[in-house]
Amino acid sequence: MDDRVLLITGASRGLGAATARLAAASGFRVALVARQAGSVTALAAELGEDRALALGADVGDWPAIAAAVDETVARFGRLDAAFANAGIGVGTSFFGDDDPDPRAWEPMVRTNVLGAAYTARAALPALKESSGHLLITGSVAGRYIRNGSLYSATKWAVTGMAGAIREEAVGTGVRVTLINPGMTATDILSDEQRKKPNLEPDDIARAVLYALSQPPSVDVNEILVRPTGQVL
pLDDT at position 232, please? Predict the structure, then answer.
């Protein structure tokens, strides 16, 4: 995997940062995308500024994420893989509640759904040139219905998106992998969720690297990883 180029969105913490570290240790050059470039400059320095690029882009802003992909290709000369990982949650999204204001859902839907779509759309031309790999962070919540959860609905959308892109990419050499984490110890969890069994971000990073390490003839379509003891 030496010198392959991997772009990661949501790279400032959690799954994104863990994947960046493991990928860099495995020989990848990495483009680290966060809303503000300043939040990934320290990580880029840690990984080596000759092998890591810090980029600022809101994935829900098409010109911004398209520019981040272009800058990655300009810096490293190619793009071999893109990990559309950026995602956020909200405190509650029950549809029958009077409070909070449902307009608070808009950034989550824009980031989780449109952000993944924009990242894929921006990266696919370069990935077709390299017969590369697109990975998208879904969720166990995108495989099992969650009562009153718009977050779950956004992840169901991502499940459908990954399948649609995989079919579209047939014949191009591009592989598509949906990464579905179970409960993982990241900032998105509530205090109550933290009391339950949890994975660590490194656990998911290893799943990402497993998919990336397969030969070109192997397309790992989906990986679902739960902590031991999680029911659904």
Answer: 72
**Which tokens sit at 86?**
């950026």
Quick one: CA dihedral 18, 128, 68, 108, positive or negative?
negative
The answer to whether the beta carbons of residues 208 and 179 sit under 8 Å apart is yes
Q: Which residue has 């009562």 as its token pair?
A: 147
Average confidence score pLDDT of the chain: 94
Phi-psi region of 176 (alpha: psi -120 to 50; beta: other; left: phi over 0): beta
Dmax (CA) of the chain = 53
The set of catalytic residues is 151
- Full-model pTM: 0.94
Helix spans in the chain (H): 14-25, 41-47, 62-76, 106-109, 115-130, 150-169, 191-194, 201-212
